[in-house]
Amino acid sequence: LTVALAFSLLLAGCGGKTPQQAKVLKIGTDAAFAPFEFQDEKSKEYIGFDIDLIKAIGKQMGYEVKVQGMGFDGLIPALEAGQIDAAVSGMTITEERGKKVNFSKPYYTSGLSIVVKQDNAAIKEFKDLEGKRLAVQIGTTGANFAKKVKDAKVREFNTAPEAFLELKAGGVDAVINDLPVNEYYIAKTGSKDAKIVGKPLNSENYGIATAKKNTELAQKIDKALEDLKKSGEYDKIYEKWFGR
Ligand code: ARG
Predict the structure, then answer these.
(1) Of 114, 107, 134, 101, which is closest to residue 204 (Cα–Cα)?
(2) Quick one: 215 and 179 in the same domain?
(3) 45 and 160 part of one domain
(4) Is 3 part of a structural domain of the chain?
(5) 167 and 212 share a domain?
(6) Which of 41, 64, 103, 141 counts the highest number of beta carbons within 10 A?
(7) Are residues 121 and 101 in the same domain?
(8) pLDDT, tens only, 113-154
(9) Ligand 1 centroid to 240 CA: how many Å?
């Protein structure tokens, strides 16, 4: 009788709590990639296109979104270890990454571009990078692209802003990084120091990454993304960050 009573009390206890506890979606991101993910200067809150998008996706799915900052090259290992449920970090959908994680449908079309100092007249396009000193962010598609440049001396930095700082300091000749992030950097902070040269080097699609085994979550995210595109919510978020 005592056991039965204890058991029913336990059940009642759980039953009373479960409905209020919102399901949590743990998001990992490298928040040094404005305008996609960065920290508000004053509040230190995570903000940006990706942050608004994943919050909207979470809401659509009935989840509370919790964002955790980490190094970009730590995102896929964190997914594999189950420390986060999804990575939203301007992450390009690539075949190689696709072997380790699932990607949502593309949510943003991007690509790489070259940034040089404002007064650099020597580098105008990709072929001019030959033998030059390049800065990239570690673990990125930009880092892979730089490896294709003949005789270049490539230095990998933990974050994109550190690569830009090195360019400003004169330690490298060019940065290879995602075009929208380069544009934002130049518009906000660097127009005196830096400029984008040449055409975009390629076209890349960003996707939301989830653990390989968690196919159910990947499907839910795709469905929510589709809903947000239909409802106009996606467009609102796009306008907010990239508005004409
Ligand atoms: N799109 C590039 C890639 O997937 C760079 C992404 C870097 N993202 C970031 N939050 N730092 O490799």
Answers:
(1) 107
(2) no
(3) no
(4) no
(5) no
(6) 141
(7) no
(8) 999 999 999 999 999 999 999 999 999 999 999 999 999 999
(9) 21
CA of 238 to the centre of ligand 1 (A): 18
This complex has an ipTM of 0.98
Show the ligand 1 pocket: residues with CB < 6 angstroms. Answer: 30, 33, 37, 72, 89-92, 137, 140-141, 160, 178
The verdict on 190 and 120 lying in the same domain is yes
Looking at the fold, whether 100 and 124 belong to one and the same domain comes out as: no
Q: pLDDT exceeding 90 applies to what percent of the chain? A: 88
Ligand 1 centroid–CA 242 distance in Å is 18
Q: Do residue 120 and residue 196 come from a single domain?
A: yes
- Tell me whether residue 2 is in a domain: no
pLDDT confidence bin for 38, thresholds 50/70/90: very high
Cα 56 versus chain centre, distance: 16
- With helix as H, strand as E and coil as C, how does 101-142 read? EEECCCCEEECEEEEEECCCCCCCCHHHHCCCEEEEECCCHH
First to last CA, the chain: 70
Rounded to the nearest angstrom, the distance between the alpha carbon of 181 and the centre of ligand 1 is 10
Domain that holds residue 61: 22-109+205-242
Query: What's the chain's average pLDDT?
Result: 93
